[in-house]
Every structure is written in structure tokens, then in C-alpha cells.
Design brief:
four-stranded mixed β-sheet, about 10% strand, disordered C terminus, 2 domains, D-Maltodextrin-Binding Protein, domain 2, alpha/beta, six-stranded mixed β-sheet, 12 strands, 20 helices, disordered N terminus
Length: about 450
């Protein structure tokens, strides 16, 4: 994720935390233990600036509660970190899970504690219904959606657009039929693709499908109320093929599209300037900066253009869960669900909150304010990354399931119906049943 310019708002938040730490330090020097409550272990994937910012939020909780919190880095594979600890009976008190599908697996195994009434009250007061449902498994609420990644953005080089005389499009038709050809005619390759990482291709599909088929159909596909051979899936694949089947629109043609991963695809736009656009989430900003670009100036983004009636808003993110019966763990979840915690984190930058009561003005830059506003405006029509909600063997495993099948489609987009059938076979196997295709 990117590390935004933090501005005066972050300075005020840091000053508040520093003052609190100084007060606690003075208390300790006077022989009084400021931490007279429980000791909690919290595990998350964040490192560097992301970890530091989260630890400042945890410091506010420590100040208010008297509990001591220790942070542990899970590494990139959260499941690999948690597995041995669960077997040994040494689970963290609170963990940040990167996928609702993983949360459901742990809930079904009995590894999670349901949210307390206090936490539920905070969630009900601050989150739209969709986010509440996302943290629920079989009618029991386990998770608090804590940190979001906006995955409905196309990043571009303004210089390339100026050379071609084009503006960011509002619709997918304008993107494919107007902007992309104009860029190509001006000598600018329209897209850098990140196809060697299959997860980026699932994100392409999800944005097209959500906008084209609509939120209700998106949910039906997730719940297997319709099969992956449904006409809506085939149509979405055909829409993707409008770009993926045209080698001239992708840097390096098909071979380059399939052979380039993230973040090298970002470097293709902002480092070597071999392409004008790259699709991916708000976290592209950090890679663009590493390539030498200045976000907001020579690295800009527009929302994924509308394929249907409305532009899509797809989010990824992290869900906070309690993995022990420690009462203080529920207190921490309740605190993290408050606008106070979300605002303190938002002021530091590099963070987007799904909490509906975190004011957009809390964010330190106009770009993130715009992202937050789009999430608020989408309301219950916002959707979480589809593949991350599916069984991991189908939706989140390198070399298999959606990742591999969509890579096959990027290599050869000539038969959407056959790809839809492959997706259905993979889905049926992952869910442990046969095809659920209806007659629609």
C-alpha cells in the first residue's frame, strides 16, 4: 500500500499519540504501571509505515483501556502463520485476515470467537449492511472490516494522454473505442498488463462483472445460485476480450501481458514509459513512487469506467477477528470499529476505512478523500473482491482455479464459453459439488 503525504492532520494525530506516550512514560517513572489490564497479541501482515501507523492506533487503545498490546507480523501468508499457532493452542488474541473466505474457514473450524454485543453495537452504528454481512458466517458475526483497498482504478500517465489528445473515459466503450485507439495512433501502447500474477486478472473480471451484471448477480455468482457458465459470465469474458484479444493494446503483446507481473507492470508505465495505463488498486501509488513518479502529478488514476449503468466499486481489505476468549480482545475490536480509531488512522495517510462515519476530510490528501467519497456514495452497492470470498483453492491459489483459467483466457481469448466451462468445473470441485447451473 502507498505511503501518502501525511500533512498537518497527521502531525496532529502523531502529536496526540506522542503526548499520550509521554504521559504513560511519566506515570511509569513514578512507579505506577499504566497497563493494569490484560496483555494482548495482535497479528497482521503490515510492516514498515503501515505497521507504525497501526501501532499508533493501538497506542490510543492502550491509553484508553489500560491493556497492553504487542504486535506480531504474520508475513505474506497469514494462513501459514496462523496454522502452527492454532495447532499449538497459541493463537493471537486478535488477527487481521486478508480474505473473508479465510475467515469463514476458521469460523467453521471453531477457531474464531463471535463478536460481543458491544462490538456488534459499534459495527451496527458505523458500517453499512453489506460490510456487516461480510463479517458474518452462518448467521454469526465474527469480523470487523478494518482496512480497505480500492480496486476499481486505472492508473495513467497524463503526458501520454495529452500526446493523444484524450481525457479519462467515463465508460468502458469510450475506453476501448476511443481512448485506447487514440493512444495507439499517437505511438503510446495503451496498457501494461500484470498477467503473470493471476490475482490481477480476477480483479479485471470482478470490475467488469459487477458493473455489467450488477450487484445482485455478483452475489448470486458468489453464492453459486448461478453457475459460471451463466450468460452473464460469458458476456463479461467477451467484454474483457475487447482489450485482451488485441495484442496492439498491450505492452509486449500477449506474451508480454502474460509474462509481466506486479509491480513490474507499474514500472512499464511510470519507469520505462512503455505503456500509458495500468489497471490495479490504490496500492499502485507506492510502486509508481518507487519508479520515480509523483502521485497526483505524473501518476494519476481514474475510476474503472462503467461497463453497465454504474461504475464498479470493488474493495479488498482486512478483517479483524478474535481468536481467543480474552475479554480484552472484544474491547479492542469494539475500539477498532469506532470512528475515533478510523479517523486517527485516516489522518496518518496510507489507509482507507470502510467505516461510514469516518469523515472524508480526515484523509490528508485529495486523492484519498476522493476514494473515500466513492466508497461512501456506493453504499450497499460496493462489493468485496469476489475471488477472496471464494474457497481459496478456486479463488486465491497460484497456478489453479480462477487465477490459472483467466491466464489461459489472456493467452487465448477466442472461446469465452469454454473458459466459462473451465471456471464452472473448478468452482464445482472447490465447493465439493456438481454444477449448479440454472435454466436462465
Amino acid at each position: 500500500m502507498r505511503n501518502h503525504q501525511r500533512g498537518l492532520a497527521r502531525g496532529r494525530a502523531a502529536l496526540a499519540v506522542t503526548s499520550a506516550a509521554a504521559l504513560l512514560g511519566a506515570t511509569a517513572c513514578n512507579g505506577e504501571d499504566p497497563f493494569d489490564g490484560s496483555e494482548l497479541l495482535v497479528a497482521a501482515v503490515w510492516t514498515g509505515a503501515e505497521q507504525e501507523n497501526f501501532e499508533e492506533v493501538l497506542a490510543l487503545f492502550e491509553e484508553e483501556s489500560g491493556h497492553r498490546v504487542t504486535y506480531d507480523d504474520t508475513g505474506e501468508d497469514t494462513a501459514a502463520y496462523l496454522g502452527p499457532r492454532l495447532e499449538a493452542g497459541e493463537a493471537p488474541d486478535v488477527a487481521m485476515l486478508p480474505q473473508p473466505g479465510l475467515m469463514a474457514e476458521y469460523a467453521e473450524q471453531g477457531d474464531l470467537e463471535p463478536l460481543s454485543e458491544t462490538v456488534l453495537d459499534e459495527v451496527d452504528a458505523n458500517y453499512v449492511d453489506y460490510w456487516q454481512e461480510l463479517g458474518t458466517v452462518d448467521g454469526h458475526a465474527y469480523g470487523v472490516m478494518l482496512k480497505a483497498a480500492h480496486k476499481s482504478l486505472i492508473w495513467y500517465r497524463p503526458e501520454a494522454f495529452e500526446n493523444a489528445g484524450v481525457e479519462p473515459p467515463d465508460t468502458y466503450d469510450e475506453l476501448v473505442g476511443g481512448v485506447a485507439p487514440a493512444l495507439a495512433e499517437a505511438g503510446e501502447t495503451p496498457f501494461a498488463m500484470c498477467g503473470s500474477d493471476g490475482w490481477t486478472l480476477t480483479d479485471w473480471f470482478e470490475n467488469v462483472y459487477l458493473s455489467q451484471a450488477g450487484p445482485e448477480r455478483y452475489d448470486q455468482l458468489l453464492e453459486r445460485e448461478i453457475a459460471w457458465t451463466d450468460d452473464s459470465v460469458v458476456t463479461a469474458l467477451e467484454t474483457l476480450a475487447e482489450i485482451w484479444a488485441d495484442e496492439s493494446l498491450m505492452h509486449g503483446g500477449t506474451d508480454g501481458a502474460v509474462g509481466t507481473g506486479f509491480p513490474d507492470c507499474v514500472t512499464d508505465v511510470y519507469g520505462t514509459e512503455d505503456a500509458a495505463m495500468v489497471y490495479e488498486g490504490d496500492f499502485v501509488a507506492a510502486s509508481a513512487e518507487e519508479a520515480g513518479a509523483v502521485v497526483g502529478e505524473d501518476a494519476r488514476a481514474f475510476t474503472f469506467p462503467a461497463v453497465g449503468d454504474e461504475a464498479p466499486v470493488v474493495l479488498g481489505g482486512d478483517i479483524a477477528v478474535a481468536m481467543t476468549e480474552e475479554e480484552a480482545a472484544q474491547e479492542l475490536l469494539a475500539f477498532l470499529a469506532t470512528p475515533e480509531a478510523g479517523t486517527a488512522w485516516a489522518q496518518q495517510g496510507g489507509f482507507l476505512s470502510p467505516n461510514d462515519n469516518v469523515d472524508v476530510e480526515a484523509y490528508p490528501d485529495e486523492f484519498t478523500q476522493g476514494l473515500a467519497e466513492s466508497v461512501h456514495q456506493a453504499g450497499d452497492d460496493v462489493r468485496y473482491d469476489l475471488s477472496d470470498q471464494l474457497p481459496s483453492g478456486f479463488g486465491a491459489t497460484e497456478g489453479s482455479g480462477m487465477w490459472a483459467t483467466l491466464q489461459d483466457f489472456l493467452r487465448d481469448p477466442g472461446d469465452p464459453e469454454a473458459i466459462a466451462e473451465e471456471l464452472e468445473e473448478d468452482a464445482a470441485a472447490a465447493h465439493g459439488n456438481g454444477s449448479d447451473e440454472d435454466d436462465d
